């Protein structure tokens, strides 16, 4: 992380990627999440969406809130070769916001997750209301035909 941000060391994305990879290989969940993030963003390594989602999903499943947020965003918007799936996005956002062994260490990530979750839940509720209204109007048409 220090080489990623230039915190106490000169910023070096390639070296940061190598350290994240070593952390992943040693079984550190945050290292796995950081490795996926490097691959998504092309930071210190050639961008590779399929491999990034392997690492991010693995880290999210293991309790990384940051990786859960990335995974949720991929499902919410259909990014990185992942098909759009709002139910999966909601699942990962909820995990990111409260059920992770490794919570977000950056407050704005939590705010982003909450805002996206609120938007998805609202669109889900709106779609459910539209479906309910259209089925009610169809019943009314059928009743008037009788």
UniProtKB/TrEMBL annotation:
Family matches, as InterPro entries: Sel1-like (IPR006597), Sel1_AlgK (IPR050767), TPR-like_helical_dom_sf (IPR011990)
Superkingdom, taxonomy of origin: Eukaryota
Name listed for the protein in its UniProt record: Sel1 domain protein repeat-containing protein
Source organism of the structure: Seminavis robusta
Region (Disordered): 125-146
Similarity remark: Belongs to the sel-1 family.
């Amino acid at each position: 992380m220090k080489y990623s941000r230039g915190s106490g060391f000169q910023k070096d994305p390639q070296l940061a990627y190598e350290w994240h990879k070593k952390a992943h290989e040693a079984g550190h969940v945050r290292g796995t999440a950081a490795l996926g993030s490097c691959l998504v963003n092309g930071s210190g390594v050639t961008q590779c969406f399929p491999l990034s989602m392997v690492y991010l999903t693995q880290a999210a499943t293991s309790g990384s809130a940051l990786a859960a947020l990335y995974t949720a965003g991929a499902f919410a918007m259909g990014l990185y070769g992942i098909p759009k799936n709002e139910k999966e996005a909601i699942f990962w956002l909820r995990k990111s916001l409260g059920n992770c062994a490794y919570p977000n260490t950056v407050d704005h990530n939590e705010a982003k997750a909450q805002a996206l979750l609120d938007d998805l839940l609202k669109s889900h509720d709106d779609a459910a209301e539209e479906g309910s209204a259209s089925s009610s109007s169809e019943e009314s048409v059928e009743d008037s035909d009788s």
